[in-house]
Every structure is written in structure tokens, then in C-alpha cells.
């Protein structure tokens, strides 16, 4: 690294630390140095906005205040606490990691980067975040916010997903956090005690509040004088992430089937999206269904909701099923744009054996549902 870049990086570190000291948000996980609490926040913040995470994090810490509690919690409780955050593999890996800590580290969160990195569900970014934020170690981190900040400040035009470019970004992140280490080491009560922690958080904070993907607030940026993209009017061009994968539309229908005051629900199996969560009986239909009165009397009728439900319930005559439109839910999972049309139906007789179970409204509220199906449950609660 040449002397000019070293000088720039030193100026960056100084400016970022000064800005973070006055402009950082007051977030609940920033009021603690407990590595467990910080770890939980980092896992929750993956693919999820801060404002969404705060109440989930606070509830989690109330219900599972330490590593031992997380390690021994029932799967149902874990999923219920995570309900609404999505990407449920995160919470299952979190518990696996808590169990490893109990078994291999005596219940104490490990303090070395290598040990943290070996925990299930923790990659290089998360290990660096925990070690720097909780233990003030000079470990780099690189997430979407930091990538955006660094590519703009240093004018990196290559795709950050490419191996060489990604390695260059990690090198820059490592140099920056390394320059935050005070020399000589500070006293325990010194304001410089958490410089590595604050430097990494300042990079993420800048990306979240100022150096945003669109409409970046360059005029109030504390490091605009050091930013290549700002000087060259290339902010909107960077980072160069290449072409986004085209979105794919998918359509589903779901059924709130009621009999004797209970509803039919089923638990998703392991190894699929939203594994172990609960849902109402449903099926993928392909093209979105037209309105019943518009549905042609042709082969297309075989895809009607009544036909689909009859197959699910093993009912001989679909015409006996009187369906009522309940709610249409639109949501996204990764690159899929999903439309879910839900119908309600009341049965006079209990249908034959299915892969689902009967639950009362009260019992359903104790279960962890997928986000889309929880909206169906909310409609049923209002209709009670």
C-alpha cells in the first residue's frame, strides 16, 4: 500500500470516528458489550432492516437472556420468537452455535476470531463484526453497506463480487480497522477504548444513513472530500453489481378450512424454504386465477380453487365446497414475486385423513406461521 493511500486511510479513520461519536444512532445493542447480545443482533440484522429487528431483539433477550437459554430452547419457541423475520435457517444455526458454545467453550462466548468463525451460521463478516464490536479487536468486516461505502470512496469500478475485487475490499477494510488501534493501548476507562468497534460500526452506519443505494446524502457526508465517486460524479454508478437476476412471478392458493371450530394447518418439512413453520393447506397454481364468474367452462376449470382443495382433502365432489375469497397476499422471497390467494370454507363433515392437523384459533396463535400465512390468520382473528 503506497504512502498516499495510507495517508488517505488515516484521514478516513479520523473523520469516521469523529462523525460516529456525534451522529451514531442510539440502538439497543450498542448499549452493551455482551457478545451474546451483539451476536443475536448481527444474525437478526442479516437481510433485515434495523427498525424491524429492534422489537424482535428486545423480546429475544427477555425470553432467552443468555447462551444457555438459547441452547436449550424448544424448536417451537425459537421459531415463534423469530416469526416474521424470515430466513429461518439463521435461528436454527444460532441454536446450533449456542449448543457448541455450551459443549466446547463451557458456556462462554469464544473471544478469538478463529473460534468464532467455526461456529455454525457464522461467516467471515459476522465473526469480524462480533470480534470488533464486542471485543474491540481489529478485525475487518464487509457487508453490503461497507462495500458500497468503500467502492465509492476509493472509486472501485469492478464488480465487488469478483474474487480479486472482493479481496481488495477486504484488504482496505482490514487496513482501516487496523488504523483505529490506538498506540499506546488506552486505559480501560479511556474514550479510545472502543475505536476498532466504532470504526467498523461507522462504516456500516455511513452506508445505512448517508451513503445509501439511491439518493445518497453526499452533501452531509463526513468523508466527501476523500470520496472519488463524489469528486467524479459517479456515486449512482457504484458499486457495480452487474445485472440483477430477473424476478420470477409465482402464484399460490391457500385455504382456511374450518370444521367444528377448528382449522386445518400443516407444518412445513425440513430442508425447504421456511422449514418447520406452519401454514394453511396450499398449492402452486401457475398463472394467476381469474375471477370465478370469468373462469371458462373448459380444461382451465381443472385449476379452480375448488378442484385443488378437493384433491387436498380427498373430497369426491368439488361442487360441495363453497369457497369464499378471504385475502390476497403479495410478497417476495429472494427473486420470486409471489401472489397468494386465500379462500375460506366451512365443512359440515370432517374430511378424510390428510397431512395436516386441526387447531383452534387460540392454538394457531401459539404456532409460528410463515409471514404470508400469518396474514391469513390475522384475517380469521378479525372475523371471529
Descriptive account of the structure:
The chain has 384 residues and is an alpha+beta fold. Helix content is 43%, strand content 12%. The protein contains 15 helices and seven strands. Strands 1, 2, 3, 4, 5, 6 and 7 form a seven-stranded mixed sheet that branches. Helix 1 (3-23) packs across helix 11 (195-209) and helix 9 packs across helix 11 (195-209). The longest helix is centred in the first third of the chain and has 21 residues, at 3-23. The protein is elongated, with a radius of gyration of 26 Å.
Shape: elongated
- Contiguous low-pLDDT stretches (5 residues minimum) are 287-302
- Category by helix and strand content: alpha+beta
Beta fraction: 5-15%
**Mean residue pLDDT:** 91
Please bin the fraction of helical residues.
40-55%
CA-CA gap between termini = 67 Å
Secondary-structure element order, as H and E? HHHHHHHHHHHHEEEEHEEEHH
Q: Total helix count?
A: 15
Profile the largest sheet: 7 strands, mixed
- Radius of gyration, whole Å: 26 Å
Total strands? 7
List the helices and strands and how they pair.
Layout lengths: L2 H21 L11 H11 L4 H14 L3 H6 L2 H8 L6 H16 L8 H5 L6 H12 L8 H10 L9 H17 L15 H15 L18 H4 L16 E12 L2 E6 L10 E2 L2 E3 L20 H9 L10 E10 L2 E11 L10 E3 L1 H4 L6 H12 L2
Parallel strand pairs: 1-6
Antiparallel strand pairs: 1-2, 1-4, 2-3, 2-7, 5-6
Amino acid at each position: 500500500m503506497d504512502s498516499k493511500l495510507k495517508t488517505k486511510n488515516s484521514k478516513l479513520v479520523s473523520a469516521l470516528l469523529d462523525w460516529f461519536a456525534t451522529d451514531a444512532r442510539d440502538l439497543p445493542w450498542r448499549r452493551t458489550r455482551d457478545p451474546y447480545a451483539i451476536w443475536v443482533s448481527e444474525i437478526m440484522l442479516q437481510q433485515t432492516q434495523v427498525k424491524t429487528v429492534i422489537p424482535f431483539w428486545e423480546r429475544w433477550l427477555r425470553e432467552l437472556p443468555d447462551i444457555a437459554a438459547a441452547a436449550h430452547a424448544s424448536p417451537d419457541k425459537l421459531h415463534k420468537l423469530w416469526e416474521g423475520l424470515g430466513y429461518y435457517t439463521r435461528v436454527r444455526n444460532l441454536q446450533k452455535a449456542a449448543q457448541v458454545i455450551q459443549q466446547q467453550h463451557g458456556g462462554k462466548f469464544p473471544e478469538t476470531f478463529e473460534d468464532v468463525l467455526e461456529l455454525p451460521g457464522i461467516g467471515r463478516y459476522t465473526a469480524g463484526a462480533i470480534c470488533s464490536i464486542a471485543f474491540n479487536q481489529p478485525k475487518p468486516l464487509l457487508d453490503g453497506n461497507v462495500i458500497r461505502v468503500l467502492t465509492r470512496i476509493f472509486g472501485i469500478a469492478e464488480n465487488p463480487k469478483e474474487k480479486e475485487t472482493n479481496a481488495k475490499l477486504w484488504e482496505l477494510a482490514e487496513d482501516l480497522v487496523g488504523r483505529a488501534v490506538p498506540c499506546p493501548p488506552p486505559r480501560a476507562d479511556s474514550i479510545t477504548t472502543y475505536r476498532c468497534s466504532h470504526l467498523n460500526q461507522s462504516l456500516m452506519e455511513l452506508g445505512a444513513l448517508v451513503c445509501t443505494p439511491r439518493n445518497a446524502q453526499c452533501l452531509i457526508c463526513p468523508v466527501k472530500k476523500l470520496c472519488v465517486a463524489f469528486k467524479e460524479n459517479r456515486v449512482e454508478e457504484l458499486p457495480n453489481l452487474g445485472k440483477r437476476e430477473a424476478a420470477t412471478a409465482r402464484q399460490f392458493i391457500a385455504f382456511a378450512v374450518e370444521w367444528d371450530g377448528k382449522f386445518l394447518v400443516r407444518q412445513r418439512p425440513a430442508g425447504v424454504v421456511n422449514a418447520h413453520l406452519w401454514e394453511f393447506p396450499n398449492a402452486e397454481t401457475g398463472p394467476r386465477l381469474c375471477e370465478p364468474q370469468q373462469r371458462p367452462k373448459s380444461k382451465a376449470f381443472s385449476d379452480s380453487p375448488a378442484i385443488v382443495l378437493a384433491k387436498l382433502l380427498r373430497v369426491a365432489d368439488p361442487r360441495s365446497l363453497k369457497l369464499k375469497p378471504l385475502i390476497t397476499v403479495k410478497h417476495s422471497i429472494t427473486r420470486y414475486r409471489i401472489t397468494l390467494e386465500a379462500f375460506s370454507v366451512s365443512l359440515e363433515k370432517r374430511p378424510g385423513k390428510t397431512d395436516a392437523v386441526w387447531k383452534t384459533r387460540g392454538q394457531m396463535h401459539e404456532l409460528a406461521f410463515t409471514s404470508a400465512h400469518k396474514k391469513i390468520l390475522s384475517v380469521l382473528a378479525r372475523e371471529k
